[in-house]
Amino acid sequence: MKTEKHIYPVTGMSCAGCSASVESMLKSLDGVADAGVNLANQTAWVNFDPQLASPKKLQQAIRSVGYDLLIESEHDHRATDNIRQLESNKMRTRTVWAGILTFPVFILGMFFMHWEYSPIISLIFSIPIIFWFGRGFFTNAWKQAAHLKANMDTLVALSTGIAFAFSVFNTINPSFLLNRGIEPHVYFESASVIITFILLGKWLEERAKGKTSSSIRKLMGLQPDTVTVIENNSLKDIHISDLKVGQQVLLKPGGRVPVDGVVTKGVSFIDESTITGEPLPIEKMKGDKVYAGTANQKGSLTIAAQQVGSETVLSRIVKMVEEAQGSKAPVQKLADRIAGIFVPIVMAIALLSFGVWVILGGNQGVVQGIVALVTVLAIACPCALGLATPTAIMVGIGKGAEKNILIKDAQSLETAHKLSAIVLDKTGTITEGKPTVTNIQWASNIGTERDQSILYSIESQSEHPLAEAIVNHLKDGSGIVSVSRFEAHAGMGVMATVDDKDYFVGNRKLLDKNNIQVSQPLADQVAQWSQKGQTTMFFASKDAVIAIISIADKVKDSSAAAIQRLKALGVEPVMLTGDNEQTAKIVAQQVGISHYKASMLPHEKAEFIEKLQAQGKIVGMVGDGINDSHALALADVSIAMGKGSDIAMDVAKITLINSDLTHIATAIRLSKLTMRTVKQNLFWAFIYNIIGIPLAAGILYPFIGFQFDPMIAGMAMALSSVSVVSNSLRLRTIKLEE
User: Fold this and answer.
1) What are the two backbone dihedrals, phi and then psi, of residue 547, each rounded to the nearest 5 degrees?
2) Which of 180, 316, 372, 412 is the most exposed place for a label (fewest CB within 10 A)?
3) Catalytic pick from 153, 409, 425, 628?
4) What is the pLDDT of residues 96-136, one digit of tens each?
5) pLDDT tens readout for residues 340-370
6) Where would I find the H helices in 418-502?
7) Would the CA dihedral through 68, 72, 77, 79 be positive or negative?
8) How far is CA 627 from the centre of its chain?
9) How many angstroms separate the CA atoms of 504 and 450, rounded?
10) 425 catalytic per annotation
11) How far is CA 209 from the centre of its chain?
12) Which long-range contacts (CB under 8 A, 24 or more apart) does 638-644 make?
């Protein structure tokens, strides 16, 4: 079988049972070698033979069980987002209108139940709630039943449908039960409230899933749509898809590199933080390699295209992130796993109780059986079960937001407290992520105001990022002097003339070229700075060095304390960086990290994550750049710096708004407390069912003549929901800092 692998968006999934239905349906089709469904990002990957199983056939199969496969939107992430936003808007509209109509039904059912017109008014209001706004539950339940499957929609449809039908019968013919000594209760409010609550939960869930593909779209947006090529000494704009290997591309100042290639003409600085994560732009001249998606500074370059389209480093990162997101196992929430067993068991108990009453109940057996059937389904309604996890998660996420921790999904919040290792990027994560002047040492100990003004004026004219760091350092206390001549020397620095005297600002190569000697005290200081991983710039005249300037990417003040907190929680910190070995070693020592790796490329970071996972570790990844996006997507818990790139924040499931690493430990504690609350909620959600279902079925009736009626069952259901919500709200008062 010659197969192709494709990833398609799926709509309509809301629980583990849904994803299991989609996956099993795909795997059952002829021509499909394998398939998997990712509930978290609402996608399905399918490995199939296009001769036997076309995308259209895949779509038809998924639609037959109540979901949809968006085959036209496989590579159009914007179209997918629009479709999902439309679905979310429809869900919101249904929820709002269902809530408006449910309110009077609830008031009538709870406080005016004996008013003679209450049943007929409730019936009128309930019809659109159940059969219009809640129609999706019934259609999906029917489609599931057609394939001998059941999910949460099945239980919702049965409980609300039977309660509604029973209530309609009692409204139209109340004498039937009255003549047999049974109060003809109506349960329109229970059916309406159930539909409204479940709709609300589904709408909130759709909102949380609305941005799953935005990270891929932004990554793809880094590559320009059009490029300027040089043909026969003339310029021509073409679409990026028409570019061929070997063509000469003109890169203008401020533009993004469209392809992977080699510079054939020009000099400029390229910001490669999208690929390497390092903050300092790299000087590029003839013969140097450039990569698609990186940002040009002020110079112009001519580039010979070497890798185009899907072969560029950026395109490979896009593909890796997309596949990493799609390869994750479906979110197996505890409530959904239990629901997979709970639904058929409840249906069996309801039918069994009805059958037993019909056989053993005598003259009133059929009536008592119907009451038992409705009561069991009503008390077993998954309202509390549906609220158990999301209410705790919502409060937990809100609590995190108060602490500047943005959490995108329940899966990361559920996993964070299990972390055994956490991988941290260096630049922008442990360090500030931008070059700053750490020290200026003047040859005469104190630089004169005139010297500072000359240095400031010269560097103000330079395009180099290190010059910008010097300007920012001196701007508050330096004046401007007239610079009559300014020359940039590629790879070395600049030379300028002030008042007919030549000055030099640059590296050691610039001094050597102009035969400028460095005194021994200054040379010793340069050596000390180099051992600390700092870059040294020289400011000199033709006669001697006037000052040396130390520039470094400073370690954040909170980084060392954050590492200690992680160690105290039993989490092993590991630092990965694209920077050199010496700098990596120094930074690791400063913050107390024992394990680190330097000169790491994006795919090597991802491979390191997989290696740790293969050892059985639960791995977290903290990063701030596009170069970290693949590793972030693979990690069990992905954390981005709020001051980092939009891509990293989109891929990551947790974002630290103020980029404070100490909040990682806070997020881990929040995860622990939230999951403890979820487990407590599940206990309360089920304790009512464990006790109430046998009573609803009438197990005590032969002994003491007691049996729940549907009204009591509805009250029990409401009480379980109140218990769950109240327990979740307790999270608001818990302190996260230990």
Assistant:
1) -160, 155
2) 180
3) 425
4) 999 899 899 888 887 887 788 888 999 999 999 998 998 88
5) 577 778 888 888 988 998 888 776 677 778 7
6) 449-460, 465-474
7) negative
8) 16
9) 15
10) yes
11) 9
12) 638/412, 639/664, 639/667, 641/428, 641/429, 642/404, 642/406, 643/428, 643/433, 644/428, 644/429, 644/433
